[in-house]
Amino acid sequence: MDRQAERSGRTRQHILEAAEQIFAEKGLDGARVDEIAALSGANKRMIYAYFGSKEELYRIVLERIYRRLSEWERFLTDSPEGGQQDVRAALASLVRAYFTFLRENPSYVRMLMWENLYEARHFDAMELGKVRDPLRRALRALLEQGKREGRFRADADEQQVLMTLFACPFNFFSNIHTMSRVMQTDLSADGMIEARAEAVIDMMLAYLAADGKRALQ
User: Fold this and answer.
1) Would the pLDDT of 216 be above 80?
2) Which of 68, 115, 163, 168 could cross-link to 200 by cystine, CB 3.0-4.6 Å?
3) Does the pLDDT value for residue 117 go beyond 90?
4) Beta carbons within 8 Å of 100's beta carbon, 6+ residues apart
5) How far apart are the first and last CA of the chain?
6) How much of the chain, in percent, has pLDDT values that exceed 90?
7) Cross-strand partners of 209
8) What dihedral angle (degrees, nearest 10) is formed by the CA atoms of 107, 94, 142, 132?
9) CB contact at 8 A, 158 and 107
10) How far is CA 149 from the centre of its chain?
11) 3-state secondary structure 122-153
């Protein structure tokens, strides 16, 4: 790669990082290209040259954060099709991975909150539902294996498991400030996050259990 291409790549990366910070804080409508330019060290002309418009830049940032989450799921989605694993431990690992990801990527939470206010308009435009397909296939395979082994109940609903898996960690972080006041404790503390993750695991395994056992062992 020549020096010009390398500089161009760095500039584009700085713009994307700055845009993620501004969009997460203010949403698409509240963000200003001037702010993104100032934070990234690029000029407005360069931003428009790379991305065309503020809306297109927002959509690219939204796609990037979804694909970042997909990287965290690869320990499950990259498992060989039909491969055998401890289904309960795999599900527990996935829940813990989500809590860790959301703790380390607060902009993901904020961007999704904004996108829900936009009624998934940009999500649809970028066809981001397809980004979640590998996880859905992996989870389906995990549930089917658990049912075959008699470890998961035969009537376990894939959609309900998926919604609980996504919603519980997200709800914790999207409401962490108000809930900290309600609970009169700092829910952002590592111990509180880990305790909530384990509670969600127990809840999901209790729902899935074919034998009434809740523990992983």
Assistant:
1) no
2) 168
3) yes
4) 72
5) 52
6) 85
7) 152
8) 10
9) no
10) 30
11) HHHHCCHHHHHHHHHHHHHHHHHHHHHCCCEC
| Count of residues making up the chain | 217
Nearest to 77 by CA among 164, 159, 137: 137
Q: SS3 of 70, please? A: helix
Lookup: tokens for 56:
């297109």
Contact (Cβ atoms closer than 8 angstroms) between residue 174 and residue 113: yes
Average of pLDDT values for 186-215? 89
**CA-to-CA dists, residue 149 to 85, 146, 188, 209, 210, angstroms:** 11, 5, 37, 11, 10
Place of tokens 């607060």: 106
Burial 195-204 (b: 16+ CB within 10 A, else e): ebbeebbeeb
Q: CB neighbours of 210 closer than 8 A, spacing ≥ 6?
A: 147, 150, 151, 152, 153, 154
- CB under 8 Å to 24, separation ≥6 — which residues? 106, 107, 110, 111, 114
Please tell me what DSSP assigns to residue 84. -
- What is the spatial distance between Cα 58 and Cα 67, in angstroms, rounded to a whole number? 14
What b-and-e string marks burial along 157-177, b requiring 16 or more CB atoms within 10 Å of the CB? eeeebbebbeebbbebbbebe
